[in-house]
Amino acid sequence: MILLGTSGWQYRDWRGRFYPDGLPQRLWLEHFAERFATVEVNNAFYRLPERDTFAAWRARTPDDFCVAVKMSRYLTHIKRLRDPAEPVYRFLDRASALGDRLGPVLLQLPPTLAADVPLLDATLRLFPPQVRVAVEPRHTSWWTAATRATLERHRAALVWADRLGRPVTPLWRTTDFGYLRLHEGRARPHPRYGRAALTSWVRRLADTFGDAPVYVYFNNDPGGAAIADAVAFAARCRRDGLQVSRVPAG
């Protein structure tokens, strides 16, 4: 099952492209959740919402909706994974208000953070087993057997990341779900993805994960590129016989 969405939903340049001109912004989440079954929330990275905000997102979305949440930068970029207990506890205390809407927690590490497997291990062990965690390292020193073994031991997913139509991470499967982030394509208008790139990613996911769930988020939001690419990606999934969550009509 491919759970397909975008990284965020509150983009002003989506008005008129995805959101009707007369739709107030306070109703954009409801509009989005009728057309997609999942979203990745990035603003939690910059400012962790209060518990009431997470509870409101749960109340405003359908029963089958799933919210992946990006971990606060306080842990990943300021603390740089040191002393993780308090930041993880605070994050989970608030995000747990999503209840059954809570999807994976995304830990995106800074590109300047070189590999420190003991710090990663100490962080991952703080998450309860029912919470899915996806880790996106961005320094090449992380691509080692020790990193892979740590992710596997904690049943955390290595985030597969794409930029300009090519993988920028190893294509490891480390647990029973996958997580793919598509940051920027090479097609026109920029930053769209072309047919060949989307087809390649569909086939990689099918070959590696089979029937396991995979969360796929388009992070190329300018000009509504993420919406258009998600629709095209879903069409290619269906063409290859993969089950995919709802997307807007093409």
Automatic annotation (TrEMBL):
Which SUPFAM superfamilies does this entry report, sorted A to Z?
Answer: TM1631-like
Which PANTHER family does this chain map to?
A: DUF72 DOMAIN-CONTAINING PROTEIN, UNCHARACTERIZED PROTEIN YECE
Query: Which InterPro entries does the protein's record reference?
Result: DUF72, UPF0759_sf
What Pfam families has UniProt attached to this entry? DUF72
Parts forming coiled coils: none
Indicate what this protein is called per its UniProt record.
DUF72 domain-containing protein
